[in-house]
Amino acid sequence: MNAPFADLRIDRDRLWQRLVDLGEVGAVPGPNGERGNARLALTDADRDGRELVVTWMRDLGLTVAIDAIGNVIGTRAGTDPTAAPVMTGSHIDTVRTGGRFDGNLGVLAGLEVIETLEQNGIATERPIQVAFFTDEEGARFAPDMLGSLVFVGGLPLEDALDALAADDGARLGDELDRIGFAGPTPCPTAAPPAAFVELHIEQGPVLEAHAVTIGVVTGVQGISWTELTVTGRSAHAGTTPMRLRKDPLVPVAAVIVEASRLANEMNETAPDSQVATVGRVDVFPDLVNVVADSVTFTLDLRNTSEDLLRTAEHRMESFVAGSCAAAGCTVESTTLARFEPVEFDASMIARVERVATSLGLSSMRMPSGAGHDAQMLARVCPTSMIFVPSVDGLSHNIAEFTDPEDIAAGANVLLHTLLELAMNAA
Amino acid sequence: MNAPFADLRIDRDRLWQRLVDLGEVGAVPGPNGERGNARLALTDADRDGRELVVTWMRDLGLTVAIDAIGNVIGTRAGTDPTAAPVMTGSHIDTVRTGGRFDGNLGVLAGLEVIETLEQNGIATERPIQVAFFTDEEGARFAPDMLGSLVFVGGLPLEDALDALAADDGARLGDELDRIGFAGPTPCPTAAPPAAFVELHIEQGPVLEAHAVTIGVVTGVQGISWTELTVTGRSAHAGTTPMRLRKDPLVPVAAVIVEASRLANEMNETAPDSQVATVGRVDVFPDLVNVVADSVTFTLDLRNTSEDLLRTAEHRMESFVAGSCAAAGCTVESTTLARFEPVEFDASMIARVERVATSLGLSSMRMPSGAGHDAQMLARVCPTSMIFVPSVDGLSHNIAEFTDPEDIAAGANVLLHTLLELAMNAA
Asked: Under 8 Å CB-to-CB from A27, ≥6 apart: which residues?
């Protein structure tokens, strides 16, 4: 931490108020007084949220640039005209029943950092940028993290503009035009930042379970999503003896048990490394007295190690084949998504950890189990992330909540990390 | 078999033609030329089917009586005015995508027996009755086998008349009036038959698998239907380590595997006795990347032995409780249906078996896995059933089919069984 600024802190209440104000745009009230958010990407609600944040950016004196995929970047100039900027940010689109913190925190904490620097008359050598990226959630347009993916050149702009909405079939490019956020800045970017730091809620229970305030994110788990359909033979549940059945649900159930067992076994040697989830099971015809004809289900495998992830994939593939064959059933599988793990920059990870410690905050290193814009930025510059605790691990839920003290703690880590990075342009 | 009538046979083509003609009422065409049936109880299509069968009954000289729940009984007089009648019959209502044989066969084979006796000038001591009972399928009004249940006094008439349709909410009594089948004959019956014999398609694969023509039905399996809801805690599939999860789908999957394993184990000592089926599984929220919050599923257990059925129930109940507790989940269960097994009359079973053998037909004793009107009649008189093979075990399916030769074989067993019973009034 830069000694001259050791006592510098963000304004907790000001940041909280911006979270509340943005949360009122597309607010979804809950049964127990919760205020959730529904600002699906490029809807009218997303436009209203974007316009509010742009207003705040301009009020803070930032230069606002909107690129061709609708990513918005506010820049505070530095003193060194040749230095590449340091960037922070996240997203402000939400899922249909989202919370007020997921994404929004990373953007508004960036603005809070800017306002803190302004109020204290602190100039930095490098410019500091606060960005929000289009359609991070992927709830309306696939794939998720679309805006940051295009920003780093991972998906051609034209393909992204042609994406169609899952809800109403609208074309992404048309929706950008409609809400006035098809900007003139070229995308992918010609000038990647010198570094990227993203503050985000954990969206899981680990920090809370360990009573730790700051998660120092080491990378993002690799993801393997497979959809499998197992087909047997429908039959009357009363008249068909067990030995004459081909019930697809029996091998599927064995696969569900095995996925959980395998992950637990792998975690004995690599703790909390592997997760395995069957979240969707659709039985056809789904009647009490009919042996199923077919069962479609999804298998979500994640690991921070590509080698271990491949091991899990191969072992499950083999188990599925054996179980289905033994039950006289056939199986078809489709890969829905496959991303290798992302490892963040070692010096960036160490920097976040050091800043947290110097601020007197408890911290622990952890991978991210969810995808984030930071994993796309990691393709073009040194990147890290800061996590703060989610109450009950809840996210994508209107009851999503993070304590204001934890919010402030995370924003202070962001402040000093950005300050260090922006003061060392050499 | 009565020696004077040893060569008596029904007319295969005449019976087949009646099956085809009744099948055209409420016909549902299939993609491969199949002709299925949709004559849900007390709909216009059911009325049209009823009127056709009543016309056939009258053409054969039967006296037609309609009772207060809409059961229709055609009676051919006997020579002994004091003798109780021998009854056969089944039902002509179907499920929404039913076949032409389920139920219809038992009614139309009864008419074919009458016509064969008429053509050959054979008088019987006892009257012979051909009945079709209201709402056997239960597809429109619960419970199933409603008409025969009321007929034997198992359900008060007024309760049955107040049943509401699952599709349009209509009251059963109003629908009976509307289609003109609320008859004047009191119900429950004051004069139970001397015996009841029902010919039915097997609706399962056992006869076909054994290449046997006649199933000599020994009784009806007891049924235990339970709906269970297991509740855990919804969580993000990426951010929630295995050790912090309460995933309800994992114990549910273990229960599905165990149900199948237990039934197979029980069948080692009592072959083909126990069946266990999980046919319905509804996961909430059913998303690829969300650990389920709750899972609702059904467990269908059936056994011909009440003792064994209770054993299966207790062992599954214990397994469910243990699995859910180990996973940190809670479980609630509701009994959807529970019927004890029905055992048919030993001498009636032996009679059907002997008749089949004397006709040179292969036969095997077997329980019924599905419910039938005969199980209700068994409460008031000696009862048995005759099964004929279902191609591929299919039923409640427009592809339901039974070979005309097997249809004729079953009808000839019915003919001679009824003839024996009706000739021995003493």
From this structure: A35, A36, A37, A38
E-state strands within A161-221: 195-201, 214-220
A237–B279 C-beta distance less than 8 A: yes
What one-character-per-residue DSSP string does A219-236 give? EE-EEEEEEEEEE-B-EE
Tell whether B190 and B276 lie within a shared domain. no
Of B264, B268, B272, give the one whose Cα is nearest residue B365: B272
CB–CB of A88/A197 below 8 Å?
yes
Which pLDDT value is given to residue A34? 87
B202–A237 C-beta distance less than 8 A:
no
Q: Does A302 share its domain with A313?
A: yes
Residue of B nearest to A297 (CA): B288
Predicted pLDDT at B14 = 98
Match 């038992």 to its residue by tokens. Answer: B106
- Lookup: tokens for B149: 């249940």
Measure the CA–CA gap between A183 and A177, rounded to whole angstroms: 9
**CATH number where B321 lies:** 3.30.70.360
Are A146 and A42 in contact by the 8 Å Cβ rule? The answer is: no
- Report the SS3 class of residue B357: helix
pLDDT tens digit string along A368-410? Answer: 999 999 999 999 999 999 999 999 998 888 899 999 999 999 9
Q: Are strands B195-201 and B383-388 parallel, antiparallel or unpaired?
A: parallel
DSSP state for residue B378 in the 8-state scheme: T
Q: Judge if B50 and B138 occupy the same domain.
A: yes
The ipTM is 0.87
- Flag residues of chain A having pLDDT under 70: 1-3, 425-426
CB of A391 within 8 Å of any CB in chain B? Answer: no
Confidence (pLDDT) at B1? 58
Q: Is B370 on the interface with A (CB under 8 A)?
A: yes
Backbone φ and ψ of A354, nearest 5°: -65, -40
Determine phi and psi for A144, rounding to 5 degrees.
-70, 165
Domain span including residue A22:
3-220+341-422
Please give the model's pTM, rounded to 2 decimal places: 0.87
